[in-house]
Amino acid sequence: MGKTILTVDDSSTMRQMIGFTLKGAGFDILEAGDGLEALERARGQKLSLVITDVNMPRMDGITLVQRLRALPEFRFTPILVLTTESGLDMKQKGKEAGATGWIVKPFSPEKLLDVVNKVL
Amino acid sequence: MSPAPATRPDPPLHRRSTTRLEGQASTYFDRHFQRQAMKILPGEFYATRTDEVIVTVLGSCVAACILDPVAMVGGMNHFMLPLSRHAPDPDVFFAARYGAAAMEYLINDLLHLGAQRDRLVAKAFGGGKVMEGLTDVGSQNILFVRTYLQQEGIPLWSEDLGGTYPRKVYFFPHSGQVLVKRLDQVHNRTLIEREASYLQRVAQGAAGSDVELFT
Fold this sequence. Notes:
The complex is a heterodimer of chains A (120) and B (215).
Chain A (H helix, E strand, L loop, with lengths): L3 E5 L3 H13 L3 E5 L2 H8 L6 E4 L8 H9 L9 E5 L4 H10 L3 E4 L4 H11 L1
Parallel strand pairs in A: 1-2, 1-3, 3-4, 4-5
Helix pairs in contact in A: 2-3
Chain B lengths: L13 E2 L10 E5 L4 E5 L5 E4 L4 E6 L3 E7 L4 E5 L14 H21 L8 E6 L10 H16 L3 E6 L5 E6 L4 E6 L6 H17 L5 E3 L2
Parallel strand pairs in B: 3-5, 8-9
Antiparallel strand pairs in B: 1-4, 2-3, 4-7, 5-10, 6-7, 6-8, 10-11
Helix pairs in contact in B: 1-2
């Protein structure tokens, strides 16, 4: 059975690019446009990985990481943050929330796949 | 008695990223327009809530002016996509990730300043064929900016794209008004050299992203 990755970003262009990269490497993709939608989509799913943006309407990526970590089934699921934010404060917040890693946009497809394979 | 509504601190007046700056965006007082002006260079972007003018000079680069007319928050970016490393087309999609990031930097700052995503509108400029002998990077930039805005549901209010001349663009974020001055190609060697060196930096920079794994 294929591994499923949930990608969360409010930009459909960005979701398309991430999806294209990951599907090409054989992963199944679920998408959400903000943190709240991501929580709904994640419920009851067996996910291998979550990749989330930070700045999104309704619920931001850091809050999403916290909320996912509070759920027993996602306590150990790798969560990567993929964002334009590169400030140390923001990274620290992500780390404290329980993120597995931090990637700054623009992302290179090779690097993204490299990191994904590393954390899986 | 009902509790007083929580007051939110006012968002800052303007934001400019320090991480993606290729040069130093510079500010000056524009006598003609009688207001503060911010000049941005390739790779830079700037967002503001104040009544000023944002100025840039474009060759084959494109600039998107994006604003929330209700909140009177607006900003401009200035970028181009890296040339495909692999032969012509398939890689354009991946080159676009650089443009998508340039758009996202600006949009995120606008939202931080109080803009609402569903109220954003855009104007787009540049993408001229001004670099002799090089592939038409301008048209790749134009295609990107149009596709991106459409996909993100941001209406393109007006545009001045393509052609063979460089442009100077003045954007007034409060009114949303834009003035475009078409420039003489011959007298703009500096512009063309600046864009060529920017393109080189983009091509190098686009190869890797900044990654940190938390342990």
